[in-house]
Amino acid sequence: MPNKPTGKGAGRRGDRDLKTRVKTAKKRTTSSTRWLQRQLNDPYVARARAEGWRARSAYKLLELDEKYELLKPGMRVVDLGAAPGGWCQVAVKAVKSDPENPTVVGIDYLEMDPVPGAALLQKDFTDEDAPQALFDLLGGHKADIVLSDMAAPTTGHKPTDHLRIIALVEIAADYALDVLAPGGTFVAKVFQGGTEHELLAMLKRNFATTFHAKPPSSRSESAETYLIARGFKGQRQD
User: Fold this and answer.
1) 113 labelled as ligand-binding?
2) Catalytic one of 27, 96, 189, 233
3) Which of 86, 150, 158, 234 could make a disulfide contact with 81, Cβ separation 3.0–4.6 Å?
4) Is the pTM of this model over 0.70?
5) CA triplet 65, 66, 71: central angle to 5 degrees?
6) What is the CB neighbour count within 10 angstroms for residue 103?
């Protein structure tokens, strides 16, 4: 996989001149203008478009997989919060999922365009019947890896936002303990904030190894990191 874009001329005047500046529209807030400008000048966004990935977030899974060898041919994969489908695209390619008999399952309450090789479910993962619906799509088989790139809508209040994302991760982890095959892996996005101790303790009881990782494509100014738990012990330890 290509490395993170770099260049000897980084920071020189010529490069600064190439950056796209976005004027603040009357109906656009300052924060949304900053977000748009960042997107337009993000090399990963342009690269994703050129290489056929649906979102820059695909590179996060590609980089995590490259370093930790998370995905292997024949694996059954569940992708929670799958929209717009970038992680499903990466998983399908890595596990060689057959479009006629998909071994990659994705769920999101947002509508997604089809991903060949993935079975997609438009549904809120927190719905009571969502786990059974996913299990049915897996053909009644256990999963080898559960991926979660879910993030709750932000309020702008960091403690509240952190609690919301941790609550989502806890729901995802609880689901993983029910659906993973022995030796399975759980990967979830979290945000640094110091209130993960109970979640970490639970994962350490149930997995052989648990650690955090921040892929290069994760913006340096972002507090996001990925929690990786490997080697599911096969029997839930509450």
Assistant:
1) no
2) 189
3) 150
4) yes
5) 35
6) 23
Give the integer Cα–Cα distance in Å for 82 and 114. 11
* Helix 197-206 vs helix 158-179: crossing angle, to nearest 10: 10
Least confident of 81-95, 144-158, 221-235: 144-158
Q: Residue 92 corresponds to which amino acid?
A: V
Among candidate residues 148, 156, 109, the one with its CA nearest the CA of residue 226? 148
Q: pLDDT value at position 42?
A: 60
User: Three-state DSSP class for 115?
Assistant: coil
Residue 60 annotated to the active site: no
All domains of the chain in start order, with CATH: 13-41 (no CATH), 58-232 (3.40.50.150)
Two tokens at 198? 């109970």
124 is in an annotated binding site: yes
The CA distance from 218 to 189, in Å, is: 11
- Which tokens in the block code for residue 210? 């648990």
79 is in an annotated binding site: no
Neighbours of 214 (CB within 10 A): 17
User: Residue 92 pLDDT > 90, yes or no?
Assistant: yes
pLDDT digits (tens, 9 = 90+) for 2-46: 443 333 333 333 333 334 444 445 555 555 545 445 544 467 677
